[in-house]
Design a protein that fits this description.
formyltetrahydrofolate deformylase activity (chains A, B, C, D); 283 residues; 2 domains; homotetramer; Formyl_transf_N_sf (chains A, B, C, D); Alpha-Beta Plaits; Rossmann fold; globular; alpha/beta; one-carbon metabolism (chains A, B, C, D)
Chain lengths: 283, 283, 283, 283
C-alpha cells in the first residue's frame, strides 16, 4: 500500500493540524507519525507527517487534492514524498578517505537508503576506493583558472545523473555559487569543529591553540557564506592538554564520520526543514 | 485564557488524531504542542497534546464533552490537566543531602513548578536543611518492627497534605506495598547505577569490582519489584581504573542529582505515560 | 604523616623524573601519584606528584632542599603544597542563585575542601542565601562611577580575609585589572557557552539565533581579555529546534553548575598548571 | 634512535619509580611518557613508560640489564616492546559487516598500526569484502559436531601466520577454551550492551523490553566465562520510547564500531594491563 511523508511550513493559525489530519483520515490514510513545531517568534508552523494508506491511492491525485483543499487555504510551503522514492546522492571528495569509507560502508550494508550514481573528486587519490565499491568516479581538477569550467562539468554530470543532493565528504574546495543555487539546501558539508567556533580553515589547529577541552564536528547545508549555513547535526568529544594536533585530527575523524552520516540520514528520511538559516530536524 | 495538557492511550486505530484535534479546533482551542507514539507490537496509541483556548472555557465541561464525544468512542485511558494546577510533591530522605540540596535549590529558584508541603525522613540529620528552606520536616523512624506503623504515619501525612507524588531523594528504605498501591506510578526513585546493571544495594561497589568504564544513574517509578520499575531517565559518566569506590560515589552524586531532577521535571510537566512497565516520555 | 603535592614546569631535558623521584625516595617519601606532560612545541616539561612521607618531615626544610638540589638545577617554576592546607575561596555573585546554591551545597556536604570566608555581591538579592549557609555577605555596589572604589573595597576585604582564589559564580561585572593582577590565574569564571563560540554577552541568545544543536559551558581563569583566559573545563548538552531561549537558559544552568564545580575542584586539588594561556589539567 | 614501551606490575613499595627512571636516565634514555597507578586494595603497582634513547642501544641488552638490576629486585611482571614492532592481528567475522568495514577502513588509512595477515569466518558472506581490501580470507564452518576440528584449524592458521592477537568483529560463535588458553588477554570481543547489563544473546531485544533510555557497547578481553572478561572500553548512546528494536540495532552499530576500534587501538599501543579480571588502561 502507498505510503507518504509530508513536510509543511506555513503561517501559524488554529486548525491546521485538525484540517491536515482529517484530510488523510477521509482518504483511508493511517497516520503513523506526526510531529510539529511552532516558531513563536516568527509565528510559523512546521509539520512532518507519515501516512500509510489502507487502500490503493494515487499519490499524484492526493497531491493535487491536498493542494486544493488544504495547502492553498493555509498558504503552505509543502512537499509530499512517496516512501518508495530513493534519493540520488552524489559524493564529492578530495584526498581524505575516512568519510568516504564510512559512507560507502553504510551504503553497502543497506543503512543509507540512496542511490550513489557518482563520486566526483578534484584529485585521483580515491579512484581505487570508488572502484572497489563499484561506483563511477569522475576526476575534475580544480585550479584557480579552471573553477568555472569545473563547476560547469560538475553541474552537467549531476544533472545527467539526476542527482537529488550532494554530500561533501571532506571536499577541500569552495563550492561555486552556481552549484549552490542549483542545489539549495541540498548540499551537505561536514565541518570539523563545533560551529560557530573555528569556522574556516584548520579548525583543529585553532582548537589546539585555544586550549579547548572539547572538539566537535558539524554537518550543515551549504550556503554562500562559508561554514555559516543551517546546522543539521553536531557532536563533540573530550580532549585534554596531552593531545597533539595530530591526535585531534585522529579523534576528530570518528566525529566527522558520525556527524556527517547522521546529517545524511536525516536528509534522506525527509526529517529536515530549513527556515531562517536554521534547521528544524524532526527526529 | 485556560490552557490544558491532555495525555491519552488507547487501542490504535485510524482517525484518532483527526478526531482529537478537531474536538479542540471546534472549541476555539489552539494546539501548541502535539506528540504521539504508536507501540506497534501491542497496537497501542499514545498521545500528548497542549491546547490553549482563545475564549473563556470551562475545563470541567471540556472534560465531560471530551469523554462523551471522543474518549469513550476510542476506549481511551486519558487525563486532562489544567496548566495552572501545581502538583504537590513530598520528598523522602535519609542521611545523604546532595539530592535534597539540589531539589530545594531548584525549587527556590522557580525551576520546579511544584509545592513541597513536607519532607519525611527516617533520620533527623537533614532537619536543619529543611528548616533553612522553610519546609516542614517529619521524622518517622523505620525499624524492623515499626515498618507498618511508619507506613501508616507516612500515608496519613501524605493524605492530609494532599500530596500528588513522592520523590525518594536517596531514601534508604524499601517502600511498603501499601504506599506503592496508594501512589501507583507516582513515586520517583533515584538509583545510583545504569539499571538493569547493579540493581540492589551498593551499586558503586559492584561497578568498581566489575571494572566498568562508565557509571550511571537511573530515575524510575517505584513498583513492588525492587529497582525494576519503569525507567524515566538515565545518564552516565566515564570513569577509569584510577577511580576508587570513593571517587565513584563522588562522581555519581552529580549524575544522581541531574537524573532525579529531570525525572521530576518530566513528571511535573505531565510528559510521562506508563505502559507495560515502560515509560513513554514526550520530551 | 605529612603529605605534599608538587607542581613543576621547566625546560624539558632528560633526567628530570629520575632526579625528582630520587629526591623523595631518599627522604622516605612514598610517591602515590605522578603525572607528567611534555609540550613538544615549546619543549617544556610539566609534572604533578603526590608524596606521602613515612617519617616525620619538615615541609619547609623539604622545600629548601628541593630548591637547592633539584629546582635550581633544572630552572624550575614550582610549588609544593602541604595536603593539610585548605585554600580560602571568595565567591562573587550578582542575582542568579543556581551556581551559588550548588557551590554552597557541595561545600556543606564536604565535597569542596575549602574555607569560604566571604561572599561578595553587587546586589543584595542573595544575602539571605548566604545567611542560610552562615557565610558573611558583603554588598559592594558597582556603577559606572564607582568601579575603582568598588575594586579597592573588594581587594581590601580579600586581603583581610587572606583569600587564595576567587570564584565568579555568574558575577555580572567585568573584573578590574587591579584585581586580576592581584590574583593571576586565581580567579575562576563560568561562561555560559562552549568558548570560543559566543564569547561576550548573551551567549544563549546567540546560540539560539545560530541554530546550534549543542550548547555548552566553560570554566576558565580570568585574564584581561574578556572570555579569553585559559580554559579549565568544558561540557555540553544537546538541544533541538524546539528549545526556546528560555529553555536554553534553563538547560544551561545544570551545565554551568557542574562545569564551574569541576573547575573549582581541579583548582583546589592543585591539578591545574597554566602555560601560554592554556591549562594543563592532571586529572 | 630506538624507542621502547615498558609495562610493569609488581607489589607496591617505595622507590620503584625512582629506580626505574634512573635506570633509563643512566642509559641515555629520554622518558617521553610515564603513567602509574597503585591498586591500594591489593597493594599492586602498575606503570607504563615510553623511552627514546639518544644513542644506539641494543634493546635485547637493555632487557637483560633491566631484568637483572630492576625487575628481579621488585619482583616485577613486565614487558618491554620495541616501538617498531607491528603486531599481527587476526579478524574473526560471521555475517555482520559493519565492524569489518570499519576496521579495514581504519587499517587502509593507516590509523591502525597492525598487520592483518588473515580474516577467518564461519560463513562465506564476507569473503568479497576481504578480497576488496586484499586480505586472505579463510572459511572455517563451525557446527555442533565440528567445533573441535574448527578450533584446531583456526589455531593452526593463527600460529602459521604468527598472529599476536585476535579481534572478534561480531563473530557469532563461542570461542573454544583451547583458543582462549593460547591467546590469554589477547582476544578482543565487542559486546553490544553496556556490560554487565544484558550479557549473553540478543542484548538489544532485552534493552527494548526493559525500556532503558541508554544503550551501550563494550569491548573486552575474552575469558572462559561468557561476556565476563576484563572490560577495555565502553560507550553509550541515548534512545527513547520511540525507537524500535530495529532502531536500536542500527544505532548500536556506530557504538560497536567505535568501541571496538578504541579497544583495538589501546591494545596495539600497549596501553592495557590486566589484573584481577579488570583492565588498567593508560590513555
Amino acid at each position: 500500500m502507498p505510503k507518504i511523508t509530508l513536510l509543511i511550513h506555513c503561517p501559524d493559525t488554529s486548525g491546521i493540524i485538525a484540517n491536515v489530519t482529517s484530510f488523510f483520515y477521509k482518504r483511508h490514510g493511517n497516520i503513523n507519525y506526526i510531529d510539529q513545531y511552532v516558531d513563536l517568534e516568527n509565528t510559523v508552523f512546521f509539520m512532518r507527517l507519515e501516512c500509510e494508506f489502507t487502500a490503493q491511492t494515487s499519490i499524484s491525485n492526493t497531491k493535487e487534492e491536498f493542494k486544493e483543499t488544504v495547502a492553498e487555504k493555509y498558504n503552505m510551503s509543502w512537499e509530499m514524498y512517496s516512501a518508495d522514492a530513493k534519493p540520488r546522492m552524489a559524493v564529492f571528495v578530495s584526498k581524505y578517505d575516512h568519510c568516504l569509507y564510512d559512507i560507502l560502508g553504510r551504503y553497502k550494508s543497506g543503512e543509507l537508503k540512496v542511490s550513489i550514481p557518482l563520486i566526483i573528486s578534484n584529485h585521483k587519490d580515491l579512484e581505487q576506493v570508488a572502484q572497489n565499491f563499484g561506483i563511477p568516479f569522475y576526476h575534475i581538477p580544480v585550479t584557480a583558472n579552471t573553477k568555472e569550467e569545473a563547476a560547469e562539468k560538475q553541474l552537467e554530470l549531476l544533472q545527467k545523473e539526476k542527482v537529488d543532493f550532494i554530500v561533501l565528504a571532506r571536499y577541500m574546495q569552495i563550492i561555486p555559487k552556481s552549484l549552490i543555487a542549483a542545489f539549495p539546501n541540498r548540499i551537505i558539508n561536514i565541518h570539523h569543529s563545533f560551529l560557530p567556533a573555528f569556522a574556516g580553515a584548520k579548525p583543529y589547529h585553532l582548537a589546539y591553540k585555544r586550549g579547548v577541552k572539547i572538539i566537535g564536528a558539524t554537518s550543515h547545508y551549504v550556503t554562500e557564506e562559508l561554514d555559516a549555513g543551517p546546522i543539521i547535526e553536531q557532536d563533540i568529544t573530550r580532549i585534554s592538554h596531552s593531545h597533539s594536533i595530530k591526535d585531534l585530527i585522529l579523534k576528530g575523524r570518528d566525529l566527522e564520520k558520525i556527524v556527517l552520516a547522521n546529517g545524511i540520514k536525516y536528509h534522506i528520511e525527509r526529517k529536515t526543514l530549513v527556515f531562517n538559516n536554521k534547521t528544524i530536524v524532526f527526529t
